[in-house]
Amino acid sequence: VPGDYEIRYVMANGYTTYPGMQQVVQASVPIRIVSVGATVSGPETAVGGSTIEVAWTGPDSGWDNDFISIVEAGATKFNRDSTARFTAGRDAPATIRVPAIGGEYEIAYFLEPGQRVIARAPLTVTRAVASVDAPDTVPAGQPFEVTWSGDAFSGDRVVVVPADTPDLKMWGVTPRYGFLAEPGGSVGTVGPYPIAAGPGEYEARYVTGLQHQVLARDRFTVVE
Question: How far apart are CA 46 and CA 175, in angstroms?
Fold first, then answer.
């Protein structure tokens, strides 16, 4: 943060019987910290879960570990799910994953150390679209096919869970409960593991790889 500071030489663990003198300042010199500039530029809109390229410029030289992050508009803390680091001297665009949850965001340039934002650009994220179509009924313990459509971004998957499973719990439902959504695909085989528990109401769900959002669902019944 810009401002007036001091560089101080501090005596560490110096033995003395005088209170408050164990870490006495032996010398100091003033220093003024001045601001630095940066720019970021990317698309104005992006689909949630996609990957975009961001052009950037930073301080002239000597900076390492600065990074960009896609954050909610006005946020001052980085988004762990959407962050890309780079080193000084790189002039290629930075590649970064877009949050899966739709809304108004900003591409922010964070300065290290301190993680202070020194540049922003607006970004509107639209929710991805997907569909799933399972059979109306499925025999317990038997594999079956699910038809699906979607962007098939990295980590996207079609899974089967009991119908009352909360959407917020999808972070723990791996492709073991179904299959990965592969680019160019439209049909996958589920089972028999997810429905081995027996008869009941289940759902096939299309879940994003980032932030585990449920984009589509189709309910079906497992029978004996």
Answer: 26
